[in-house]
Amino acid sequence: MVVGDVTTGTEVLVIGGGPGGYVAAIRSAQLGLDTTLVERDAYGGTCLNHGCIPSKALISASDIAHDARNAEELGIFAEPAVDIEAMTEWKDGVVSRLTRGVESLCKSAGVNLVEGTAEFIDEETVRVAHGGEGQGSETVAFEHAIVATGSRPIELPGFEFDGEYILSSREALALETVPDELLVVGAGYIGMELSTVFAKLGADVTVVEMLEDVLPGYEDDVAEVVRERAASLGIDFAFGEAASDWETLDDGRIRVATTDEDDDIAEYHADSCLVAVGREPVTDTLGLENVALEPDANGVLSTDEEARTDLDGVFAVGDVAGEPMLAHTAMAEGEVAAEVAAGEPATLDHQAIPAAVFTDPEIGTVGMTESEAEAAGFAPVVGEMPLRANGRALTLNEREGFVRVVADADTEFLLGAQIVGPEASQLVAEVGLGIELGARLEDVAGTIHTHPTLSEAVHEAATAARGEAIHTG
Amino acid sequence: MFEFELPDLGEGVAEGEVLAWHVAAGDSVEEDQVLAEVETDKAAVDVPSPVDGVVRELHADVGDIVATGEVLVTIEAGEAPESESSTESVTGSDGEVVETSADETAADGRVFAPPSVRRLARERGVDITAVEGSGPSGRITEADVAAADRAADADDEPAVKSAVRRVATEPMAERRDHTLATPATRRLARELGVDIDAVPTDETRDGEAYVDAAAVRAMAEREAADDEIPDEDVRAVTEQVVSELRETADEVGAEPTPIEASDGDRREPYRGVRRTIGEQMARSRREVPHATHHDMVAVPGLVEARERLQPLAEERGVHLTYTPLLLKCVAAALDDHPILATQLDTESEEIVYRRDRAIGVATATDHGLVVPVVEAVDEKGLLELTAELDDLVSRARSRDIAREEMQGGVFTVTNFGAIGGEYADPVINVPETAILGVGAIKERPIAESGEVTAQPTLTLSLAIDHRVIDGADAARFVTTLKSYLSEPTRLLLD
């Protein structure tokens, strides 16, 4: 213990104020536990400050500019002027509104907020170092600790983030100008979302991906819709190449070298390079060496279905507890951890976790794909509705994409859905609810869906799976 | 073909009225499955099947009076055909057999049930993967979980049923249908828990077996010497009765009281351990007329005894507290006043004298009041008791304690003085008859031979079930307890 440290006690100590942490803290306080939340940076974590929210703000803004510019078919001819500074200001306003909201929610729930970085001293106490050097620290004794330290972008060796040439997603979201030429390393969901934003804002974007297609982990026909749309926006792709080296050029630009499996080298010139090759859990600030807790080979604090780590009384939620690294998963885990700490019979028994990618068009998925259902021992049946046959999609001037539902053939229980198209992120919620409730195809088919909306496509896919489709052959 | 005769349902009972049939001709039954409910002038009794098989004929209608020994039901003994009952339960309302559901929902270990139903299962401790769903395609509903919960409770029943059956049918070979005895002998047999029809005798009167008081006493002694299976059975029956009473009480007490809350008020869920405690307390206050006896005792002897034993205990690595000493004194006082170590069986209208000295120790934990039970306090030394107490209490606090470890107590001690307060009004841990609350050991003024001196004293608050005992019993017990507490060396006498 540092001399002069003040020791305080708390029943629940939450480390990290992102979606997992702040939800855990509020729930814990609601359950009557004395709760302390330690945050070193900004409430809302990566999601609100450097991830989901700012990226969606920029996606919406860039969509408006792009749509206005490309509406001749609808009889609209426009060339909007884009003021990046004003756009950024608006985006920052949205972010700060939300983060202030999180802070005040925590306060009104009675959560004790502490700014600083928490480090385990032993299995019952942490030291919270405030701000920078010399700003002091305090010791907090806890009964339960909920680790919600989140994740950070992975750095490629040799491509350390500098905020000028080599950008992480966080830095890309805070750019003050749109680069003329942007190289994006990694065609996962972050790489694809940001490539789309910058392409729509006028950048010349090239995406380099080590694997053979965009959006690894998604089915081919899902990825295909997004890849083709991206290509039509002018995004170039180079698959099967890994970024290996880079240098600055005399003209203030950079040259990035890539290598393929035959060791052939390709070179790309750009103003800057966004590296989006995944995220890694943040555990190095936690002082885990002082307690009997170690991350697994992937750097993850592994947890059980009650969000407990291997160390008694210590929970981990959100990205630090591993895949899927999704804000809504973190929130669900945070809630369960708090309830378990309070002695409630809570558990992570969710049947399906939805996921959304905000590319153009969007992707929404939940539950199992057809092949995953087979692997799990089901005899799946699939129903599909192409959006070109949906009235609302056409009135949105959208012809690509589809809704696919997966169900068990014998019982008709819904097992999953894959949706590509406008508002796919919203549409997937209906199927998620159906899966959780144990709904069957007939239950969806027997529910009247509003006309004319995209949700009719979910209805139609369910009827198609039963061989009773009206609008599709 | 097994002709099942109505067994003797209790001493002196010659007949019973069939209240309800739980089976019909053609049903397959398992051993211990309840066939019928029969009411005697004493109580309504479930009659369990003695064999596996198929019911061929019911020999009485509901409302009929059946005499002991008369054939009640004909059962074709043999393996109960398993498939019959299981297909039945997955038959849809339209008779369509939904056979695939169980297999298919098993894929991926997946359960099809809404989140609210899954939470209910967790709250009730029901393994939802083992619940058979009655919804569309076998989806699990709230009612299915509730039914599985009741079935799990009923799993404890076979022991009870077979207890009834054992008493009722097993000793048939050496058991008479009728026994002649004087009323005084019958009463004695009742008090000693002896089945008068099972008391061996060579004597007869008018051709009927005749039993006298001496034979009853001899039988009682033999039973006490045997390992008291009847006691176990009585306990099982008692627990069963208690759980049924609890269900009834839950239903009765289920009327909600809405509370209007304004801004600044806070709502907290009333669930889990808190609610269990609440229900137990409400039931105790509802069913048991409490009377509390307060007293104070000067305990310099107890303090001295601990001070002398403490260094010896430390040598053995044990920190001796007052609690094990207190438990020993309580156990000794219970031996002197066994009426305090009883349980009221309201179904059979009998007071059950518990032989064991399993004593509950009320323990305040973060998640509420928990009462771990220390078994056989009378047979254990202080060191052993201390170790066991430490273990139970620490596991109670960390919630690492099994339900069985909190059951089977005959008496409870609650040490409210650990937190503060002189006297309390403790709530009896039903179905026990009494609970002792103990204040802090501290110096209080004691008037003795015209002088007031400060002496270490202990305050005692004994709550009793006034149905079972009276205030005088309570006072006598407390007086005896005080004598042990003031002079613990008395424990060595017995």
List the domain count of chain B as a whole number: 3
Q: Segments of chain A where pLDDT lies below 50 for 5+ residues?
A: none
| CATH-assigned fold name of the largest domain in chain A | FAD/NAD(P)-binding domain
Count of alpha/pi helices of chain B: 13
**Intertermini distance of chain B:** 57 Å
Label the structural class of chain A: alpha/beta
Shape of chain A: globular
Termini distance of chain A? 72 Å
The main sheet of chain B comes to: 8 strands, mixed
CATH architecture of the largest domain in chain A: 3-Layer(bba) Sandwich
Question: Percent of residues of chain B in beta strands?
Answer: 15-25%
Under CATH, the homologous superfamily of the largest domain in chain B reads Chloramphenicol acetyltransferase-like domain
Largest sheet of chain A: 7 strands, mixed
Oligomer: heterodimer
CATH class of the largest domain in chain B: Alpha Beta
Q: Rg of chain B to the nearest angstrom?
A: 27 Å
Parts with pLDDT < 50 across at least 5 consecutive residues of chain B: 80-106, 158-173
CATH names the topology of the largest domain in chain B as Chloramphenicol Acetyltransferase
Helical proportion of chain A, percent range: 25-40%
The CATH superfamily title of the largest domain in chain A = FAD/NAD(P)-binding domain
List the domain count of chain A as a whole number.
3
List the helices and strands and how they pair.
The complex is a heterodimer of chains A (473) and B (494).
Chain A: E1 6-15, H1 19-30, E2 35-39, H2 45-50, H3 52-69, H4 84-109, E3 112-115, E4 117-120, E5 125-129, E6 137-147, E7 151-153, E8 166-167, H5 169-172, E9 181-185, H6 189-200, E10 204-209, H7 220-232, E11 236-239, E12 241-248, E13 254-260, E14 265-270, E15 272-275, E16 279-281, E17 314-316, H8 327-341, E18 355-357, E19 362-367, H9 370-375, E20 380-386, H10 391-395, E21 402-408, E22 414-421, H11 424-437, H12 441-445, H13 456-465
Parallel strand pairs in A: 1-2, 1-6, 2-3, 6-17, 8-15, 9-10, 9-15, 10-11
Antiparallel strand pairs in A: 4-5, 5-6, 7-16, 12-13, 13-14, 18-19, 19-22, 20-21, 21-22
Chain B: E1 2-5, E2 15-21, E3 28-29, E4 34-39, E5 44-48, E6 53-58, E7 65-67, E8 71-77, H1 82-89, H2 100-105, H3 115-124, H4 142-154, H5 157-168, H6 183-192, E9 204-205, E10 208-209, H7 213-225, H8 229-252, H9 272-287, E11 290-298, H10 300-315, H11 322-336, E12 342-345, E13 350-353, E14 359-365, E15 368-370, E16 373-374, H12 382-397, E17 411-414, E18 434-438, E19 442-448, E20 451-465, H13 471-486
Parallel strand pairs in B: 14-17, 17-18
Antiparallel strand pairs in B: 1-8, 2-4, 2-7, 3-6, 4-5, 6-8, 9-10, 11-20, 12-13, 14-15, 14-16, 18-20, 19-20
Helix pairs in contact in B: 3-4, 5-8, 6-7, 11-12, 11-13
